[in-house]
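Q: Here's a chain of 899 amino acids. Please give me its 3D structure as tokens.
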Amino acid sequence: MNDLLTAVRAGAHRDVPALVLKLDRAGRKAALAELKELRKEARGWDWQRQDRVRKALHVAGAGCHTGAAGCADWIGGRDLRGWSRSPYPLILVALGDRDPAWLGDLARRLAAKSLNSEAEFTFISELARMAGTPIPVTDSLVEGWTERVSTARWHGGSRRTPLVGILRSDPHVAVLAPRLFEMAELPAQVGWYETADSTDHWPGALRTLAEEGVLDRSQLAERCVARLVRGGRTGDQRFFLTVLQQLGITEDEEREHLRDWMGMAADGISVVAGHAQDVLTRLDARGELSTRDLAEASGAVLFRREKKLVRGQLILLGKVLGRDASTAGELLPVVAEAFGNEDVTLQERALKLIARHLPADDAALREELSFAAQQLGPVHREAVAALFGAAGEEDAVDGPYEELLPPVPEPVRLDPAPGSVAELVEEVSAQLKSRSWQGSTPGALAAASGIAPFERALDGLVRVARTGRAELTEALQETLAGTWYTEHGIDHQPEPAYMTTDHALALVVGSLLGRVSHQSVAEGKSRWTGTGTCAHAALNGVLLARAWEAAGDVAAARVPFLLATPTWHTGSLDPAELVERLRTYQRLGIAPGPADFSQALLRVRRSGAEEAADAAAALGTPEGDRLAAWIRADEPLVPVLRHGLTSDRPSAGNWWQRSASGVRQVLLATKERPLIEREFPRSFHWLGRPHLPSSRDCYHWGADQSPHWTATLPEDGETLAAWLMPDLLRTADEGPRGSAWCLPRLVEAGGEAGVALHLALAYGLGARHPEDRISAVDALLVLAAQGRLDTVLLGRELGVLVDHDLVKVNRLADSARTAAATGAYRTVLGVLARVLPTLLAYEKAPRGIGDLLAVAAECAERCGTEGIEPIAGLAATAGRKGSSQTVRQAARLAKTFKE
């Protein structure tokens, strides 16, 4: 046993298996007790020393466990799994004398854990081979298997081996491949393919293996259908649909899964619903779709937003009605469901279909359809009256219009910082264990829940480090065992470029646990963190400066609490509350931390706080005087300069040519605020300097980056909007999904709602991805509810962006339609009335202008045009020849100005 422990302490991991095999059962138990103590001891070592013994400790502990459960826990221990290759081959040698049943039990237990890499798969599969048992099939194991397959495809540095060849030779493919269809989410490697028309991908390989009899084709088809009905991530759904299409579903299988196709058509993603609709059409053509089933499926499809699906379903209903007039009583009420669709053209198609097939002698059906037609807007009144007579005009008596806007969001107060060790450790652990160094997306949790969890945890660490340091340190050490900062501290200075609230919290915890040296803290506090070349790095630098300062505070237990902890969820700070905190500091004789106090100033609510300013001045301290002056100044952090561009040009010219040759970016500059450089720490100086706009890429923008960006300046939404404008510009172009996350937060921020906020909103309304447009619509409606929306300004900014080809009209139309559907018709019309003159002046109508005119017409019909100036170019467009969507909708809108 002594030889084994000596080898482990020396890090001689290759010698460990032979030494373990020399021990009997009693010797292994005795050695295990010593190894457990060594494992605890090692948690206090620096990372280099830990790394020297980790592999030897890993192998020795696994070999000395006599129970499979304990052995599995030891092998899966996070603190024993280093960054280098795991010593699994040595563990297999150390377990070489175990009973096959014991090895099989161990393999099953390990497969049930979250050990999903290629190395773990190889290890577990080898255990199963040694045990003579089938490989255990779990999601984790399948993930490891797909990773191994992916690695094999790149063997030799190039993709030379076709995927189907690798799978064909894999002894586990018949067992593991079907499991892909049962996993909650597919492994990333499975959905990858080299080119859009590539056949060397998983669906094609699975089809080939099914044709060769390696896999059961009917089983794969059944599982594909089940997964498509169940739903899930878009990428996963596309994968299962591709597999199903590759397999080639038979007519019998189409008939057997009738209810499944109906479910997919109703609830599946667009591409899945389209496939299901095609199958239902084939079933109808073969006489295998009953009228009742068609009615049920159609009722759900006609509620969908996708025009193509709704149009296709109306075509199918029209074919059936034309073929069998007796189905009118059952199908026409379903057709009327399309009256609730937001697209006026589809409403018109449904109305014409009803007019074509409505029986003349069915009074009850006529009454039912007449009632349904009351959903239609004024544009259809004449057609409804012609079809149903006076009964169809019951909705023609309009009451006074009332704009529907959401309630103004109320600021939510943050709960007090956790006061007990147990509660604080739970909150800190929840944030750190799921963070980037554990393999998750940086800031994902923070982005979802805002700044509150981080600020409460940070303040809690400072408070409890002063009152219950020993208990807190012990609890954190135990709970966070295996996390990087807990085990290793830092070996280099954190960079503002990559700073998130995750890293800030981990840095403070590392200091509290002694993993960050006093010298590192001192150097970090004195280092200039605000070296940002962009706003993101500068805002990250403020966070890093606060983190270094808090790291020093918890190490020395210097302050009782932080000054900058927000009062409300937006990050804003109640001025009276800050005065009381400063009064407590004064009573205790404690000097505020420079970064903490500076952040508090940036967060304090300045509007209507004269009484708090008087109380701050009465403190008679430098900080009190600074707070009073800051509140009384009540001006933006830095002034924002207008861009000076306009879309009102004397000669419109050609839209596409002008866009190609015109300005390709519309951004805003900010002026200097000398006070920041005079009175704030160096890490804050970037914020007060003048900045010219730049759209060049940086590494900091993205949906999941940081709610602390907006919480750094929660009372200066206009300034933030100007600085974050490059993110939103990219959102409207090639940017990633989710980049408009900041818009609702900017609207909730204090300060002026000027050109920067409205320009940011304009970019969001034309964003590339639907979820970003939803964020922009939410922000638009809240800004209107606050009474801060300037429809003329927003319309002008949208005109500028469209004129410079920075916002696509069809995307703007989608946003406008979504906003109007909430009942904000006058708000939307006020904005569109300023955008449309720019678009109507183009010689070549931009794509989507017909949809935009349709939304404007719908709004005008609902709320009237009182107070809206006539739209330049509308009459000329409405008077053109032809019946295009643009001409028809322009005529419809023009009519509302005459009524």
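Q: Can you summarize the key feature?
A: The CA atoms of residues 13 and 55 lie 6 Å apart.
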